[in-house]
Amino acid sequence: MDPVRMEVIYRATQQIARELALNMLRTGYSSIIKESQDFTFSIFDREGRMVAQGYPQPLHMGAISAQVQEVLRLYGEAMAPGDAFIVNHPYRACQNHATDVTVIAPVFCDGERIALIGNTAHKPDFGGKVPGTNAPDATEVFQEGLLLPPLRLYSQGRLHEDLRTIIMSNTRTPEVTWGDIEAQAKTNFYGLKKLDELLSVYGKEEVSACWLGWMDIAEEELRKHIRSIPDGTYGPCEDFLDDDGIDPHKSYRIAATLRVRQDELFFDLEASEEARGPINLRPCVMRSLIPCIVVAVLCPELPVNEGISRPIHVTFPPEGTILNPRYPAPVNMYVRPSQMTASVIQMALALALPGRVPAPDSGAGGSVSIAGFDARLNRWFSLYEIYCGGAGARPNQDGPSALNSLVVNVMNTPVEAVETEFPIRIKRYELFEGSGGAGRLRGGDGMRRDWEILAEEAFVNLRSDRFKHSAPGLDRALSARPSSAALNPGTQGEQALPSKVTGLKLKGGDVFRIQYGGGGGRGSPLERDPESVLQDVWNGYLSAQTAREVYGVAVEGWPPALNLEETRRLRARLARS
User: Is 531 in contact with 448 (CB distance < 8 Å)?
Assistant: First the structure.
């Protein structure tokens, strides 16, 4: 193909995917869509190979690809223009968890299926045993919400009203939930028109050839970067989940070993046995997540499509482990093992590429759901927030603070949005000072957030981690500070909470707090420039005490000033200890 036309067609396809994502952002009902942006749009070719993405959510990519393949298997020859399919089943179609709902629509040109459009979007409530659906103490997938195998939502443009009735009858927030699903379906239909415009200009043969060509380009470009990595075996590298929400005393191990062979990467994953609680993870999620991590390290400008997965091979542990659970094991906290897997993948890449890979982050992407009855509106409400932590120290810079991780890629929920839409007041939202791992380059700080309940009562679910095993540092750096949670902090009734809380009943006036830790540091803290430590104290990232005890830097008075002679003595003493 002419390279200019190939570039124009592919960039137009990418722009369509982005435009669909923006449309979803404007038409979604729930705060998790219109504020946090917990959704993904993807365009696939006729065989279900990913072509382009809008608002990419790495954790959705593998799942939506598997769902497109399952829809093609079940309905491929029976598809017609105007059809749309809905699915959220973790085992029948490899969804991440039941509160992620996918809608898929085929694209036809001259009576032939030429492409598919798919989107996945989180729902703040989709039934299940607790308000907010995702129960951290679930012991089987049936407790985790309404389960839909691939079903027709629309037939030739006509909505299946009986399916709509079933869905709305199985959620505590029917108007919001159905509003989001309708936004997904109608945005897909809008995408059909946009792709039809592209096909009318260039034709289906040229467009299809362009898409396949760009997959080949992505593959070859990634292979070229992989060739720069020395052949060898790196690892194993390991990280740990605090617990499974059932047994608070049992941690779970995840490990990865990287083998580099010319222009291909082989990741061998290890994991503890399958958990009773919902920290299990379906393998399809990691099939897309690991290539995204590799691309982010080696060539972040590379378009994300099917081609990037071809040089990367992943061996999963056997069935019956947390990275390969057996039906009907619960999976609603799949983000937690995803984060830890990303952490060990990063550490293995750091061994292969010294000085090029950030330290592990906080494992942010944990969630808080607060649900109850809103007397003002005479209906149930369900707030679902994904909170931020600190990023790991970068190769040449400190880690950013209050940032969601690579694998989650969502936004926080603005204070104004929470207080306008829900009977909740945000009393505090600030950095968790000094929570980033100390080092020559320090990890970014996490955040502290307090929610005050204004309704008569509400129920809280917390799905978190890193309370015991905080983000590790690289090259003699320190780990980050661990996360924590509390009820009514700073009062006589303050109560420390574990990392996983199910259906905690709060009354009006109660305050719920999460302090989420930072990212790991990089290099010895004693090698950090004293002037940088002084600026950290001045800017509130560190206390003078931490500067003295951890970094060996004497910062005195206010405004703070360096005592260089005392700093030399401190560092000499700490180096000997």
Answer: no
DSSP 8-state assignment for residue 321: B
Q: Do 404 and 426 share a domain, yes or no?
A: yes
Q: Which residue has the tokens 């939506």?
A: 64
**Torsion, CA 212, CA 216, CA 222, CA 228, rounded to 10:** 180
Output the pLDDT for position 534.
98
Instruction: Evaluate whether 40 touches 64 at the Cβ level (below 8 Å).
Output: yes
At 285 the pLDDT is 87
128 neighbors 363 (Cβ within 8 angstroms): no
The pTM score is: 0.95
Are both 413 and 424 inside the same structural domain? yes
Question: Hey, which residues does 270 pair with through a beta bridge?
Answer: 255
Cβ-contact 484, 496 below 8 angstroms: yes
- Dmax (CA) for the chain in angstroms is 81
Tell me the three state secondary structure of residue 40.
Answer: strand
- For residue 542, pLDDT beyond 80: yes
478 & 543 share domain? no
Reading the block at residue 175, the tokens are: 């108007």
Strands 151-155 and 158-159: antiparallel
Cis peptide before 236 (omega within 30 of 0): yes
The answer to the question of residue 399 being in a domain is yes
Which of 219, 242, 273 is where one domain is finished?
219
Using one digit for the tens of pLDDT, what is the confidence trace for 284-301? 888 888 999 999 999 999
pLDDT (tens digit per residue) in 422-481: 999 999 999 999 999 999 999 999 999 999 999 999 999 999 999 999 999 999 999 999
